[in-house]
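Weekly sync, protein design subgroup
Attendees: M.S., D.O., the rotation student, P.L. (late)

Item 1: inverse folding check
M.S. brought a backbone from last month's batch and wanted to see whether the design step gives back something sensible before we order anything. D.O. pointed out we never logged the input encoding, so this time it goes straight into the notes. Structure tokens as presented (216 positions):
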């Protein structure tokens, strides 16, 4: 049986998010490295599979899928026993609510902060824009106030069980610390939740970069 092929870059945030979900579910996969520095993601052969020229995408026995969160949902749906996507209607609605909160309330500021404080210095040899950092930290702090209220009521953001909505927050949440911010540990309930997420074996497995994983 063919294993899933993950086309991406081993150090890229979205590639690692997909790999984390694959590891969480113990799904074997092959990483097919895409050379971003050479612009391979803009080559015609790549654009045939991913018309936006972004990473990653997967190939599962001929089935092609791109967009990180869609890929993660597909994988979790193939393995429903994991519970990463609840199926009971009300639980599923709360899950979708939590997933929407991640992409609309957490990701915009977190991703901008990671770009400014981590990616710009490494890849563009440019210092972070202090004004952008200050503004985005202020926005994110207010968002995390709401997270702290949510997490005061239950262990995870969609209830008492881990879901994709929690895992979607990595890798950006840990990278905020790499950029010099302790914002994820300032609020007690957020800190407890965050520390549990980054201690998961699925996250720790790829600290040195995503690699092909065929056994667990």
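Designed sequence read out in the meeting:
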């Amino acid at each position: 049986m063919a294993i899933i092929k993950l086309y991406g870059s081993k150090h890229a945030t979205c590639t690692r998010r997909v790999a984390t979900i694959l590891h969480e579910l113990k799904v074997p996969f092959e990483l097919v490295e895409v050379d971003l520095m050479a612009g391979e993601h803009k080559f015609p052969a790549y654009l045939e599979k991913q018309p936006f020229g972004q990473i990653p995408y997967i190939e599962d026995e001929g089935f092609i899928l791109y967009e990180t969160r869609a890929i993660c949902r597909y994988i979790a749906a193939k393995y429903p026993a994991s519970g990463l996507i609840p199926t009971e209607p009300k639980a599923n609605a709360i899950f979708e609510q939590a997933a929407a909160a991640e992409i609309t309330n957490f990701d915009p500021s977190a991703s901008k902060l990671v770009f400014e404080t981590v990616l710009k210095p490494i890849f563009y040899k440019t210092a972070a824009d202090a004004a952008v950092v200050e503004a985005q930290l202020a926005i994110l702090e207010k968002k995390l106030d709401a997270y702290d209220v949510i997490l005061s009521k239950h262990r995870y953001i969609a209830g008492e069980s881990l879901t994709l909505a929690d895992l979607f927050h990595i890798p950006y949440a840990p990278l905020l610390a790499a950029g010099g911010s302790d914002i994820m540990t300032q609020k007690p309930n957020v800190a407890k939740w965050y520390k549990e997420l980054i201690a998961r074996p699925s996250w720790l497995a790829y600290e040195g970069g995503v690699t092909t994983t065929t056994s667990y």
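Discussion: The mean pLDDT is 96. The chain has two domains: 4-83, 89-201.
Action: P.L. to compare against the previous round before Friday.
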